Amino acid sequence: MSAVLTVGSPVLAGYSLFITLLNSRWINRRFSPAVDYPNSRFAVSILNSLQQVPLRLHFDRAHFPSLIVLPENDTWWKYFSELVDYTHTWSIASAMSIAWVVVAYILTLSNWPWDDYTNRQADGGATGSLWMWLIPIVVGWLQLSPKCDFNRLQTAYDRADQYARTEITGTPPASTRRALTITVMADDVMSPDELLTPPVFNYSRSLQWAYTAEIIFLMYKVASEKAQSRIPVRFESEWVESNTIKTIHPSNRCGSPQEITTYCGQPDAKHSHWASGMFTRIFVASCASLALQWGTAGAALIEAYFTPTVGIGCRSLSYLVYAGISTSIWMMLLVSSILAHYSASHSRRASLSARAALELSHWLRMMGKLLAIVNTIWVVMACIFQYSSFYNTCFCKSGVIGRGKAAYAVIIESTAQAAQAKAAWVGAIVLACGSAFTFIGLANLLLDTIP
Fold first, then answer.
1. Are 132 and 105 in contact (CB under 8 A)?
2. CB-based contact 126:319 (threshold 8 Å)
3. What pLDDT shows up at residue 89?
4. Dist CA 372 CA 322 (whole Å)
5. Hey, which residues does 57 pair with through a beta bridge?
6. ∠ CA(227), CA(232), CA(235), 5° rounding?
7. Could you give phi then psi for residue 360, rounded to 5 degrees?
8. Which residue has the higher pLDDT, 160 or 438?
9. What are the CA-CA distances from residue 132 to residues 158, 252, 295, 446 (Å)?
10. Are 21 and 450 a contacting pair, CB within 8 Å?
11. Which residues contact 8 (CB under 8 A, 6 or more apart)?
12. What is the maximal distance between C-alpha atoms in the chain?
């Protein structure tokens, strides 16, 4: 289904990539100036690596505050961070695949009738521009290197758990319920898409991930501020100086479960379930993905539209429908994820609005996936029709769809018509390539801000 969603809605694929990059940049910037605690840098690394899986925090007893505060747990953070810090990035095969796509597009453009009249419809140029979005999406994910292997992440968690401690005695937790959970149960999530690890499904996890990351940040911030103020965990005890300025003496980080929980601060029950700046990041990611989709599909539309007979025809309409449905799928699934997160935030009260939001979320998700299947079949068939001369009929060549009774077929183009078509082709190529490379450029700028 991930491949169908990607092809059926490049907007959704681009959005999932960009929101992942923006979330990583956001959490790094939140931690960098405000938190200075012994294991905080490992926490940021782990949070960035776990955007591919649904995360849940459990605040019963002193589970998560113990992970932050107890010096014995520094090993857990370090070991877990090392286990999940693996990469699946560029290889010779992936680089050559991208290179061949670029070469094929260049050869397609070189085969266009630049010096002759355009009495034949542009064949590969429009479809090449239509599929240009694939390059920035694939390159972006290769550079980001998402952790999509759920079993590997779960194994890393299990191996790291041997170092986790929750009490001052240093004994492993008796409860099997972890403080920070990688959930695999459908009952733990509002949207089943949260359990799916392919990158295109990051749209469904971004809201819950950001909320979890912000709660973790706030707890770290409270602990860091108290440490900077030389306040130990144990009540009514004195601060013990460490041998070095940059470290905290272990005795300052020990205490009873109640003291540890108080030290980090309890999460406010009224705290917003919408992470700070979340809707700004959604807006930026939406603009970037829409620009990529309509820049490439728009280029294909321009090439087909201005190839005589000028106007909306079979080719241009097929490109317009593809981009339009792609945008609708993205919108439906994005709204679905927002409604699911709203429902999760009100799950304890089970209000009528929360139940209605959840039902609407399920409906939008199912309809979005159904449209993705239809749109994938549509774009594949449009390409088949393009290269099988299906469109080389009087109906399609004369632009009946756009011109109606005023339709006509061009047998021999005038010089003005040929010049107009070639100018439109050049502009379309610039638009398609510009959209793709701008998206790659923006993604790399965001990657540069992520440690």
1. yes
2. yes
3. 63
4. 10
5. 180
6. 145
7. -65, -35
8. 438
9. 41, 57, 9, 21
10. yes
11. 325, 326, 329, 371, 372, 373, 374, 375, 376, 379
12. 94
Can you give the three-state secondary structure of the chain, one letter per residue?
CHHHHHHHCHHHHHHHHHHHHHHHHHHHHHHHHHCCCCCHHHHHHHHHHCCCCCEEECCCCCHHHHHHHCHHHHHHHHHHHHHHCCCCCCCHHHHHHHHHHHHHHHHHHHCCCCCCCCCCCCCHHHHHHHCCCHHHHHHHHHHHCCCCCHHHHHHHHHHHHHHCCCCCCCCCCCCCCCCEEECCCHHHCCCHHHHCCCHHHHHHHHHHHHHHHHHHHHHHHHHHHHHHCCCCCCCCCCCCCCCCCCCCCHHHHCCCHHHHHHHHCCCCCCCCCCCCCHHHHHHHHHHHHHHHHHHHHHHHHHHHHCCCCCCCCHHHHHHHHHHHHHHHHHHHHHHHHHHHHHHHHCCCCCCHHHHHHHHHHHHHHHHHHHHHHHHHHHHHHHHHHHHCCCCCCHHHHCCHHHHHHHCCCCCCCCHHHHHHHHHHHHHHHHHHHHHHHHHHHHHHHHHHCCC
Q: Which of 279, 255, 140 is nearest to 206 (CA)?
A: 279
The answer for residues whose C-beta is within 8 angstroms of residue 181's C-beta and 6 or more apart is: 55, 56, 57, 58, 188
Question: Exposed, middle or buried by CB within 10 Å (0-12, 13-18, 19+), for 274?
Answer: middle
Residues in the chain, how many?
451
Question: What separation in angstroms does the CA of 52 have from each of 16, 37, 183, 212, 245?
Answer: 11, 26, 11, 14, 37
State pLDDT tens for residues 16-39. Answer: 999 999 998 999 888 888 888 888
Q: Are 23 and 213 in contact (CB under 8 A)?
A: yes
Amino acid at the residue 355: R
In 3D, which of 16, 22, 4 has the Cα closest to residue 275? 22
How far apart CA 386 and CA 384 sit, in angstroms, is: 5
Q: How confident is the model at residue 170 (pLDDT cuts 50, 70, 90)?
A: very low
Which residues face 180 on adjacent strands? 57
CB 48 within 8 A of CB 27: yes
Say if CB 132 and CB 436 are below 8 A apart: yes
Give the pLDDT confidence of 380-401 residue by residue, as tens digits: 998 888 878 787 777 877 777 7
Q: Do residues 241 and 230 lie in contact, with contact meaning Cβ atoms separated by under 8 Å?
A: no
Which of 183, 213, 356 lies closest to 281, judged by CA? 213
Tokens matching residue 116: 């002759």
- Cβ proximity of 267 and 218 under 8 Å: yes
Of 34, 21, 446, give the one whose Cα is nearest residue 214.
34
